[in-house]
Amino acid sequence: MIRPPSAGKPPRLVLRFALYSALALALAGGGILLFVRHEAQVQAEKELTADATRAAGSLSTELHRTDLEETVKSPARLKVLDDLIQPELMGGVVRVKLWRGDGTVTYASDHTLIGSHVDAEELQEVLAGGTVRETGRLNDEGGQGKNIKVISAYVPLRLAGEQQPRGVLEFYNDYAPIEAQVGATVKPVALALGLALVLLFASLFPILHQVTKALEHRSQRLEQQADELERTLNERRQAVAGLREAESRYRALVEQLPLVTYVSAIDKPGFSAYVSPQIDGLLGYSPDEWLATPNLFWRVVHPDDLERVRNEHRTGYAANQPFSTQYRLIARDGRVVWVEDQVIVISDATGAPVQAQGFLLDITHRKTAEVALSDSEERFRTLVANVPGVIFRCSIDNDWTMEFLSDEIEELVGYPASDFIANEVRTFASVIHPEDAPVLSAEVEAAVADDRPYTIEYRTAHRDGSIRHVVERGQAILGRDGERKLDGAIFDVTQRWTAENERLKLASIVESSDDAIMAATAKGHLSSWNSGAERVFGYTAEEVIGKPISILAPLDNEDEPVLILDRILAGQAIAHHETVRKRKDGTLIDVSFTFSPLRDVSGAVIGASAIAHDITERRRSDAERERLLLELADQNERLRELDRLKDEFVALVSHELRTPLTSIRGYLELVLEEEAGSLTEEQRQFLGVVERNAHRLLALVGDLLFLAQVEAGKLSLDIGAVDLSAIAAESVETARPIAEEKEVTLTLATGPLALIAGDHSRLVQLLDNLISNGVKFTPPGGRVDVRVKSQRGNAVIEVRDTGMGIPSEEQQHLFERFFRTAKATEQAIPGTGLGLAISKAIVEAHGGQIAVASADGTGTTFRISLPIRQTQPATEEPVEELAL
Fold first, then answer.
1. Is 673 strand, coil or helix?
2. Which of 797, 879, 791, 808 is nearest to 843 (CA)?
3. Bridge-partner residues for 339, per DSSP?
4. For the chain, what is the mean pLDDT?
5. Is 482 left (phi over 0), alpha (psi -120 to 50) or beta?
6. Beta strand 605-614 with 574-582: parallel, antiparallel or unpaired?
7. Is residue 311 pLDDT above 80, yes or no?
C-alpha cells in the first residue's frame, strides 16, 4: 500500500512516483502497442489463410488438371479462370496465383507472371498439406504496377476427388488496410499515454480502462467478423453442395431423355464440351470418345449436308437466336441417321454468345415415312399424269369448288390447277360454257339423287378464247368430313368432235364437188356416187350403186378398171391416171383419175375411192397449145438465125470499119504534124474535129467487136497480177481534164489491197467507162468519188456521183445494149448505150458482180465486187481519201 506523502516531505517522491508511473505506463503502452500490432497482423494472416483455403476448396471442382500442370495460355481458358478468380479479388486481395510443384506460375490474375519460376523449396511444405504466410512486397517476385506491402498466404490446392495436393494457391492481401486498423487502434493508446504523462497517475487507470475497452471492442469485432465469415463459408459450401446436387439431378434427367444433349463452344463449332451418353446408342461413339476426338462431329455429318450445316450453325450463332435444322449423320457402323438439331445460344452478362446447347433427336423413322409418303404421292401423281384426262374431286356447289385437280387441267383450259383449288383465283364454274352450265348441274343433281354414276358432254372455255368439247364421268362419294363430294374425270373430245364435224363437212364437199367422186368395194362393185359423178357420167346413184366398175369402161377396154382395182387393193395409190370412159349416152370422154385405197380401223384395205375429172376440153386445149408452141418454136428459130446473122454482120462491118479507120487516123496524124505542108489555124481546127470523131468511131467499133465476142462466148482475158488501186489512180487522172473542164470535183480513196488476178486492159476499160459516165452525167459544181477497198475477201470499187440520177423503172435496163435513159436522150448527152453493157460483161468475166443504187435527181452509185482470190482480212480496211 502506498501511503500519501506527508506535507512536510518534498514533492520529489511524487515526481518520482509520477516519473516511475509514467515510465511504467510508457513501457506498458509500448507493450500494448506491440501486442495490438502483433494481434492485428496475426488475425489478418489467419483471415487471409482462411480465404485462401476456402477459395482452394471452391476452385477444386472447377479447375482442370492442365491448369496446374501447364501454363495457361489459351485466351478462352484464361477468360474462364479470370471469371472464376474475379469474385475472390475483394476484401483487400490484390493478386491470386496458381503454382506448379516445381515453382512455376501456371496462372496469375494479372497474367504478367504466368510462366515465371522461383525456388520450389518453400512450396514443399504447402504441398505436404501445410500453409505458409509471409509479409513482403507485391512485386518482389516480379509483376507490374505499384509495389505495395502485402501479406501472402500459400495453401495446398486439390482437385475434386483427389487426396494429394496438385498445386499451390497463393493469395496476396494489401497490408495498408491492416496498418490503418493498427494505427487507428494505437492512436487512442498513444493519446492516453500522453494525457497520463500530463495527468500523471490520476489519469493512468482511466486510460488503461479505455485501452482495455478498445481492445475488447476490437476483439469482439474481429470475433464477429470471424463468425460472419464462418457463416458465409458454410452458406457457400451449402450452395456448392446444392448446385452439385442439382447438376447431378439435371445430368440424370438429361441422360434419361430419348435424345442426345450436347454443349459446345461458339468459337469452336463442332467441338463439344459435354455430350450425353445417348450418343453411343445414336451413332455408336462413347461420350469420352466423342469429346476426346477433335472435329469428330464434322466427320460424321453426311458429305451432302456438310456445307449447309456449317452455314446454318454459323448463321444461327451470329444471330444469337435459337434455331433448328435437320441433316444426316453417319454412324460408326455406316448407318445413315437423320437427326433434328435444336440449338439454343447461351450468352454472357454482356450479351455476347459464349456457348451453344443443343439436342439431337433421331428422326430417321419419320424421314423414312416421309420418303415413303413422298414416293406414294409420286406414284399417285404418275398414275394421274398417265391418265389421258383430268382427275378431280370437288364439292357439289354452285362453283364446283375443287379439293383436288390434276395438272392436265392447264392443257384443257389454259389455267394451272392451283387457280381452282379452294377457288384460290377462279372457280371451275367460270370455265364452263354458260349455255352448258345448267345442263351439267341438272345431270349431276339427278345422278346424286339416284346414287349412280353420270356421263355428260359439255363445252369449256380455254384461256386463249377457243372452245373445247369435253366428256365428264363421275360419281358422288361420302367425304371424310361427312359431306358428299364428286370424284370424276374429264376427257378432251375436241378432236373427236372436230373430226366428226370434218367428216360431215367432207361429205358435204364431196356431194357438192364438180368432180366425180365414187367408191368401190373389194369385189369391184360401186358403193358410193356423188352428184358430180352424175353430171360427168350421166348415171344417177340409184342406177350405178351395186353395179360393177366396168360399167363405165369402153367395150375395147373393159379389163382396165379391174386391173387398176387390183393395184389399189395391194395398197398402191394412183394419181393423175388419164384414160377414156363412156357416159350413159355412149359418148366417150377423156377423164383424169386419182385412186386411193380405203382402209378399216385395223389398216386393212377394204375397197377403193376415185376422183375423176373431165379433161376432154383440156385435151382439146392442150392439142391447140401444142400446135401454137410448134409455131412459136419455128418463129424463135428464125429469130435466132436473124440474130446470128446480125451479130455476124456487126462483127464483119466492125472489122471492116477498123482497117479504113486506122488508115484515116494515120494520115490525120501525118497531116496534123504538117508532114504534107503547113496548115492554117482553120484547117487545123477542121482536122481536129475529124480526128476526134475518128477516135469516137474507132471506140464504137471496138465496143461492137467486144460485145460480139461476148455474145459469141469467145471473150478471152489476159489474166495477170493487177494492182487495182493503181488502175483506179490511172483512170482518175485520165478523166481529170474533162472533170476540171466541167467544174466537177473528182476524188479517189484507196485502202491496202492485195494484187488480184485480172486483165489489166479490161479493168482499165471498166473504170474508164464508169468514171467517164459519172463525170458526163454530173452537172457543174457536183462531185464524183471513187473508192477502192478490201471487204470480206473481195476487192470493192465504188463510183459515186451527184448527177441527175436514174429513175427506178429504168434501172433494170441499164446494162442492156444500146439502152439510154430518157433524161440522157432529152438532154442530148452523147453516148451509144454500150458502156454499161461492156462494164457488166467485164465484171462477170472476172467472176464479180456489179450493182447500181440510184434515185431520180440524187445521184448514182455503181458498186463492183471482184474476188481477190487470196486470203484477206474479213473486216473492212480504213481508207484514206485523197483530193485529186
1. coil
2. 797
3. 327, 362
4. 79
5. left
6. unpaired
7. yes
Residues 609-644 have pLDDT tens digits of: 888 888 888 888 887 888 888 888 887 777 777 666
3-state secondary structure 386-429: HCCCEEEEEECCCCCCEEEECCCHHHHHCCCHHHCECCCCCCHH
Look at residue 489 and tell me whether its pLDDT is greater than 80: yes
Location of C-alpha cell 364431196: 510
Could you tell me if residue 771 is left (phi over 0), alpha (psi between -120 and 50 degrees) or otherwise beta? alpha
SS3 call for 73: coil
Residues 425-441 have pLDDT tens digits of 999 999 999 999 999 99
Closest by Cα among 691, 768, 715, 737 to 884: 737
- The domain made up of 513-614 has a fold known as Beta-Lactamase (3.30.450)
- The 353-362 sheet, strands edge to edge: 272-275, 260-265, 353-362, 336-347, 323-330
| Whole-number Å distance between alpha carbons of 136 and 87 | 24
Phi/psi of residue 635, nearest 5 degrees? -65, -40
Q: What is the pLDDT of residue 598?
A: 87
Mean pLDDT of 13-42: 66
Residue that has been written with the C-alpha cell 339416284 in this structure: 450
Domain ranges of the chain: 41-178, 257-369, 387-498, 513-614, 717-883
Please give the Cα distance from 153 to 722 (Å, whole number).
114
Q: Describe the strand order of the beta sheet including 402-405 as a list of residue ranges.
A: 402-405, 390-395, 484-492, 467-478, 454-461
Fold agreement between 387-498 and 513-614: yes
Considering the domain 717-883, what is its CATH architecture? Answer: 2-Layer Sandwich (3.30)
pLDDT of residue 13: 44
Q: Is the pTM of this model over 0.70?
A: no
- Dist CA 149 CA 402 (whole Å): 90
Q: What are the C-alpha distances in Å from 446 to residues 152, 399, 475, 476?
A: 104, 18, 11, 11
Identify the band that residue 1 occupies on the pLDDT scale cut at 50, 70 and 90. very low
Give pLDDT, residue 686: 76
Phi and psi, residue 484, nearest 5°: -80, 135
Angle between helices 204-254 and 176-199 (to 10 degrees): 160
pLDDT, residue 880, reads: 38
Query: Class assignment of domain 387-498?
Result: alpha beta
More confident residue, 699 or 565: 565
Using a 10 angstrom Cβ sphere, with 0-12 exposed, 13-18 middle and 19 or more buried, the burial of residue 252 is exposed
Region 532-561 average pLDDT = 87
Q: What is the pLDDT of residues 770-821, one digit of tens each?
A: 898 888 888 898 999 999 988 888 899 999 998 888 887 777 777 777 777 7
* Helical axes 835-845 vs 760-776, angle rounded to 10°: 140
**Fold of domain 257-369:** Beta-Lactamase (3.30.450)
492: β partners: 470
Query: Which CATH fold would you assign to the domain 41-178?
Result: Beta-Lactamase (3.30.450)
Concatenating the DSSP letter of every residue in 271-299 gives: -EEEE-THHHHHHS--HHHHHHSTTHHHH
With helix as H, strand as E and coil as C, how does 462-528 read? CCCCCEEEEEEEEEEEECCCCCEEEEEEEEECHHHHHHHHHHHHHHHHHHHCCCEEEEEECCCEEEE
Question: How far is the C-alpha of 322 from the C-alpha of 342, rounded, in Å?
Answer: 8
Who wins on pLDDT, 392 or 116? 392
Which SS3 state, helix, strand or coil, does residue 884 take?
A: coil
Residue 254 Cα distances to 274, 469, 884, angstroms: 12, 67, 104
Q: What is the tens place of the pLDDT at every residue in 727-761?
A: 889 888 988 988 998 899 999 998 888 888 898 88
C-alpha cell belonging to residue 402: 375443287
Assign 653 to helix, strand or coil: helix
Please check whether residue 864 is in contact with residue 796, taking contact to mean a CB–CB distance below 8 angstroms. Answer: yes
Q: Which contiguous run of DSSP H or E holds residue 55? A: helix 12-59
The answer to whether 165 and 127 are in contact (CB under 8 A) is yes
